[in-house]
Amino acid sequence: MTCMNNDAIPIQGLVAMQQSPINVEENLDPNQHIHGATVDRKNTVKQITKPISPWNVKYCYWTTSGSIVGAIVFFIFTCIVMTTGILIVCFTAPKPQAPKCDFNILRTATNPIEYNYSPRSVAVGDLNNDTWIDMVVANSIVNTIGIYFGYENGTFIKQIEYSTGLGSSPYMVSVGNLNNDSQLDIAVANFGSNTIRIFLGYGNGSFTSQLDLSTSTSRPILISLVDLNNDTILDIVTVNFGTSSISIFYGYGNGMFSNPTMYSTGYDSLPYALAVGDFNNDNYMDIAIANYGTNNIGLFLATNNGTFEEQITISTGYDSHPSSIAVGNFNNDAFVDIAVANHGTNTIGIFLGDDNGTFANQLEYSINSGSPYSIGVGDFNQDYHLDIFIITIGANNTGLLLGHGDGRFSDARMNSTGSTSSISFAICDFNKDKRLDVIVVNNETDNIDILKGYFEGFSLPKYYSTGYLPFHIALGDFNNDSKLDLVTANYYNNSISVLLGNGDGSFAGQITYSTGTSPYFVAVSDFNNDSYLDIAVANYNDSNVSILLGHGNSYFEDQITYATCTFPRSLAVGDFNDDGQLDIVVTSYNSNNVSVLLGYGNGSFGNQITYATDTYSQSVVVGDFNNDNQLDLVVANYNSSSVSVLLGYRNGSFANQMKYSAGTYPQSLAVGDFNNDGQLDLVVANYGSNNIGIILGYGNGSFTTQITYGTPNHPYYVAVGDVNNDTYLDVVFVLYGVTNVYVLFGYGNGSFGNQMSYYASAIGYCVAIGDFTNNNRLDIVVPRNDDKYVYILLQYNRGALVHEISYASGGGSDLKSIVVSDVNNDTRLDIIVSNSGTNNVGIVFGNGNGTFKSQVFIKMPSNSQPSVITMSDFNGDNQLDIAVATSSTKQVQMLLGNGQGSFISQVTYQLPLAYPPLAISPGGGILPAGIMIGCALLIRRNLARKRQRRQQQVTTVASREHGHQKRSLDHQVLNLLLIQSACYIVLTTPQVVNLLYSTVSSTIPNRTADTLAINGLLAFAAELMLYIFPVASFYLYTLTARTFRGELIKIFRSLLIPGMRCGAIQIAPVDNDSLATHPRRKTQVSNE
């Protein structure tokens, strides 16, 4: 049988050859001839014999059509690929858990100690006496402690490490003054070497290793420094794993300690944590132990000789496994209470103490997002009630339970730092903002998270009805229920509205009282000495003030009026003549003076006495500005851009004014001590110059030049108070025509930070601040100047913490990628790196001489693990930006540069990629397609040139036939390249479109879940088409290239048809005169 092409004419007996009867394959003699045949037009056969050089060729006895074989092979290959894919999915997909037949036995407590090497513990203190909190971390993996020194900007820099000994595996660290030299020392519990290592501090941040204290066969897992025997010298208490005990080392005050005294916590108790406190009010410190194994709290009550009684146990519940314990006064009863983290039942247990060392039954609070691991206490929301901070083993690894001050707590508010296994933390205020911060040690990520406490702001406003155009507001308790109420001066209604507060931030309906015409300003005080608040109102168009005396039950008598100068704009209250009776001072907008009305103490007032000021007196405040114990006046003069100071003479009279420059058109004044020097200062709203002016007082009646802070629009009214509870006065103000209220937060030194705005939903001419919810936090009320409502902004009371930064233990930044470029346009090359271990991007700015500045960090999302980076101008502003691929979150983050070395992180809505990105480069899917098309065109031109040269060399019919076949092969190669290019464009264009759509739609907020799901499906389809291209290339070669397809057919024949016989023959190469030996030749018809 002869293997032939489909279009060949079968001719028998045309090929003469000899074949061995034994071997299918035979080597022919080099001088032997192979006979070819041609057929002339008369169907006569002409023998042609040519001598040729031989080589071995495989040939097969096969007669089936080549196209059918190709189709069969293609089908078989497709089946194999599909079967392989199905098997991969089946063997790698998660299997549902079938019901099992379990052999149940009594559960025993598991060991909560994890033997992995990572940062285990953190302690804090000022180790170098620079007044900033530092931290020390126990690193088990390298048997060291690492010291991070704190700086005033709230950051830490690791400076030094100290060895804790070979194989020591430090487990916990504590800080205290162990040798009474006023310098902090460090004590480390070494789990691996059964020792306590003492590092005595020099006070400059360096330490000396003094001695090791042996714990014998016990492995210390917790250490506490406390004075147990009332000798003012710190002692050491350790919790010991393995021996179920605690050890006490009594200090001698020189850095030396006694041999340990051990107390058993019970068989198999697995003590895991301790806390100390005077539980029975005998002035001796007692010890409370969390016994993980026996599900209880162990109490060791101290005796008067420095020893402890036998352990008393308090159950924490079946399978509760308490892992941490903390103490504090949770119900303000002067007795110490206990809080425990019940790791086994996912609860926080509260035990309220009595004065004899006994405790009430446990109150439990569920933690739904993980198992609580450690617990601590502190006042995080500054309401003077202790709160509870916890870390958990779970997705949301930090939580806060806010205390109500009566032993009850709110439900846990959980958050995540990106870790699922936090194991230790320390609570402190390391940036001196009067808010508690937290340092958290994470087990599986080997890093340290810094959680900073911050002012969370205000809720969205709620509104309550008043009279029309409430121009001014005053606050007071008008019904003696200890809840703050408010009163508004309703300019267009000629009335005041009294709104009684409910104590929860809400208010009852208004009660209205008539006033004079156009009430412009309102103030409250007790004018008749009956202990009930009264109300004074400045009536702008009547040129008088109204006095409404209160009854203490929210009701007021009808007004009594007293004449003032024309157009009274504001008023203030004080005892100006030192007679113990309250007086009133009123500014007059048109008469360039102030009016003083001296009170008689019965609610009535004398006739006005006027004192000259400058033009258009707008606002007045009172205070003792020269420290003579006599009230003085300060007046804002609107037209002269100044303030007038009138010093009081104790008899109700005032000295002539002294003027100090303010901004343009000073509109409102307020008083406070902004630099904590004990002297009163001024704040003024400069309407015309769009700024807030701070004028510091010297305490002698004179003032400094004002310091200004710009505002977005005309400031109209200012108020003063400690809004964020940091003990420093802040400034609250409203702007003309703006529906926000603004706060300038004070630093306590006379300067202020950046202003923060909060949505108020009202354009008001006034603002007032007070505690409407009785939570020791100031809230804000703004009247709406074009309607009949007041808007209440309640301050959040949640103890907010923000994940500020992470540090890698042992310097483990885990650098993954590096790029060199000039990011700040100073013509000097800078270095940009991705730090996977610390989840940030670092920039090292070059000095141009081969040296570099310290690394500047750009924070990336928690646990994102940035891997590779690239730089380009991605937003078309001619400034370099950074694209960062994150291996953990499988996304690409954009950092947009401003050309000055700083970058802004762009909000990312991109769905995670299927796999962690390994490389990233600027550009798109069109570039590779363009390269492929360009190469195809170049190949086409090259083939055309070859064809021209070939045509010049054609001299015979055989040569022309051979050239025709070569041209056919050239066209086949060209077509294959063009088809591949088209296929690439078709399969990659959806991904390019998807990327463009993702970029455009990333600015769309609040996209629905359905939209996100559809976008995710389309993104998956586009990515799937991208992965199909390599497979499509294989099929393109198979379907369009005969040579490739023929070789593939031979491979499958040899694999699938074992009985197929193949042979080897020697054939000659084709020359220009004969094509007789071409394996797929056509018979040539002779002209004879």
Automatic annotation (TrEMBL):
Keywords, comma-separated and alphabetical: Glycoprotein, Membrane, Repeat, Signal, Transmembrane, Transmembrane helix
InterPro entries, sorted: FG-GAP, Int_alpha_beta-p, Integrin_alpha_N
Record-linked Pfam families: FG-GAP, FG-GAP_3
Keyword Disulfide bond (UniProt): no
Superkingdom field: Eukaryota
Keyword Signal applies: yes
Transmembrane residue ranges: 68-94, 918-939, 973-993, 1013-1037
Name of the molecule in the record: Uncharacterized protein
